[in-house]
């Protein structure tokens, strides 16, 4: 299989009850959220996009139901053209970018990576690997990390890490999340000096709050 091409492995079966299908690469289960990896909802098709030598290995499809289990193995070997290696780089990778987002809004972080062979991209938050999910989505093989609906817990340090046979590079973001609190004040009377008094009848005050990794700060 040539480097930079797509590869798909599929299984066809009919049995009752419907089996649960899992895919493994070199003994490690693939969830379908890894960069460049897609698995159809029923599990019968595994797709690997933009292959690199890092995808070499044994792939196993395992199907299990109440009647038992069976498996099928694939041996994948990546062939690639003899091109000069170019270490991976990221646009603006030497700088830590500070970004802000409002609660419940969407935000997209960029990781514009280049290199030969094409590097693999992974995202990390506060040192922990981020898997593509409904809340944090890998777009364009990880060159974009999209959070459709920002939450207070999303504040923190995000790092885009790219790796290939030619080396590695990374870029960091510091994400601050802001929101608005609505405070209701009712039946509050204020007595001011110089015999001046004021009465407030259910006014509304809006405060902007900044959420950090530790605690909210107003």
TrEMBL record:
SUPFAM superfamilies of this UniProt entry?
Immunoglobulin (SSF48726)
What PANTHER family does the record point to? Answer: BASIGIN RELATED (PTHR10075), CELL ADHESION MOLECULE DSCAM2-RELATED (PTHR10075:SF14)
Q: Which SMART domains match?
A: IG, IGc2
Q: Which Pfam families match?
A: I-set
Q: Which parts of the sequence belong to the Ig-like domain?
A: 1-77, 88-176
Superkingdom, taxonomy of origin? Eukaryota
Gene3D superfamilies documented for this protein: Immunoglobulins (2.60.40.10)
Q: Which organism is it from?
A: Electrophorus electricus (Electric eel)
- Tell me the protein's name: Ig-like domain-containing protein
Q: Which UniProt keywords apply?
A: Immunoglobulin domain
Does Transferase show up as a keyword for this record? no
């Amino acid at each position: 299989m040539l480097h930079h091409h797509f590869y798909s492995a599929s299984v066809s079966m009919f049995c009752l009850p419907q089996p649960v299908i899992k895919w493994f690469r070199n003994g490690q289960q693939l969830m379908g959220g890894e960069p460049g990896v897609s698995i159809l909802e029923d599990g019968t098709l595994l797709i690997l996009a933009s292959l690199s030598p890092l995808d070499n290995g044994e792939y196993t499809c395992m199907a299990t139901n109440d009647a038992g289990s069976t498996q099928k193995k694939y041996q994948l070997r990546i062939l690639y053209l003899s091109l000069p290696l170019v270490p991976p780089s990221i646009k603006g990778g030497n700088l830590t970018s500070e970004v802000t987002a409002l609660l419940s809004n969407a935000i997209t972080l960029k990781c514009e990576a280049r290199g030969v062979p094409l590097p693999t991209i992974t995202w990390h938050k506060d040192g922990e690997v981020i898997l593509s999910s409904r809340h944090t989505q890998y777009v364009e093989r990880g060159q974009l990390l999209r959070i459709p609906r920002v939450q207070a817990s999303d504040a923190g340090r995000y790092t885009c890490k790219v790796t290939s046979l030619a080396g590695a590079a990374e870029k960091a973001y510091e994400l601050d999340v802001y929101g608005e609190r609505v405070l209701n004040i009712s039946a509050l009377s204020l007595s001011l000096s110089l015999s001046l008094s004021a009465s407030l009848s259910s006014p509304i005050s809006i405060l902007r709050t900044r959420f950090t990794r530790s605690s909210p700060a107003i």
